[in-house]
Every structure is written in structure tokens, then in C-alpha cells.
Amino acid sequence: DETEFRNFIVWLEDQKIRHYKIEDRGNLRNIHSEDWPKSFEKYMKDVNCPFKIQERQETVDWLLGLAVRLEYGDNADKYKDSTPDGAKNADNTAKNAEPLINLDVNNPDFKAGVMALANLLQIQRHDDYLVMLKERLTQDAIAKASQSKEGLPVALEKHILGFDTGDAVLNEAAQILRLLHIEELRELQTKINEAIVAVQAIIADPKTDHRLGKVGR
């Protein structure tokens, strides 16, 4: 917005840069004047801005940098011993990076979330929601999950979830969990099929014993 841009330049000069004396800022402050672009171009030359008047994004960035340098120069003692906010909050940042560390399993919202997720994923529920979680975190389950597997990448957008949680990230997580659940069911079906084949191999080739007068082993 042209008006906002001009007001921004005037604010920088009035509040931070202060290259002109107050009485010399009239042309720059007259933001509705047709001659304002010329005044702005002269201002850029006066502060030694290396960019052209048409390069507004670069000009704004450069003027902001100039304003920061001047602000620091005027208050060097104030800022030299300042600790960045990021450093002050380093511990909080580390904690936030591992949200499960401070997870309160007794929180009613957590319990409701576990039960709701179980319903959405159609996983068998248990009266004790912690038992339901423990069953998914047994040593065998952890060991199995730790085994590296190579496979083809899956395009989640091609798999219909069948419900909407109202949150895109939660929807994606639910899709992943459902696909993993389907994989486990397929592995179970494979083992069942293998057991059926093994039984059939035993009974499909009976031997005849004429002495006993019956067929079988």
C-alpha cells in the first residue's frame, strides 16, 4: 500500500534514523504530495542507500538495517549485555521439543484423547486406557518397530481415512496409524494362511494301510 509505505519511511526517519533536522523533514512528511517520490529519492541519496527507488523491498531492508545500527549506537551500553530471548528460553525450547517428557497421563483430556483415537482407528478398547497403551508398547512391539524395513513410499493422500478429525495434522497421523494397523492384520492373515497350508500338507496325502483296513496314518 503506497500510503503505508510512505508513512513507514517517515516513521523510520522521525523515530530511528533522524538523518535530517526536524525542520528539514517537511517534504518527506508530505506523503500526499505528487513530488514525494522525488523527495524520497533525494533522501535515499542523502543516507547513501545503494538501491534504486524502484527496488522497494531491498530499500526497506537496507533502511531497517540502518535504523538498527543507529538504535544500537545510541544505546550500546543498554544492549551490549543483553541475552537473546532464544538463549533465555533455551530450557523451555528443549522441553517443548520433547513434549512427551512432561506428559501428564492422569490428565482427563489425555484420557479422552486416547479413547477418541481408539474409536477413530477402530482399535479394541480396554477399561484402563493405560493398559491399552502398554499393550502397544510391549518389548516385542518395540523390538518389532525398531527393525528396519525397506519398502515403497506411500502417498497418504491416495488413502481415504473414512473420517475427519477436523485437524489436518491429526488426520495424517491417523492415516499412518491405520495403515500400520492394516499391515499388522495382513501379517496375521499371512501366518493364518501358512498354518492352513501346513495342515493341508499333512492331511492331503494319506497313506493306505491294507492291514488295518483303513486310510490314513
UniProtKB/TrEMBL annotation:
It holds the Pfam family RLL. Signal peptide: none annotated. InterPro entries: RTRAF. Coiled coil: none annotated. It comes from the Eukaryota. Belongs to the RTRAF family. This is RNA transcription, translation and transport factor protein. It comes from Oreotrochilus melanogaster.
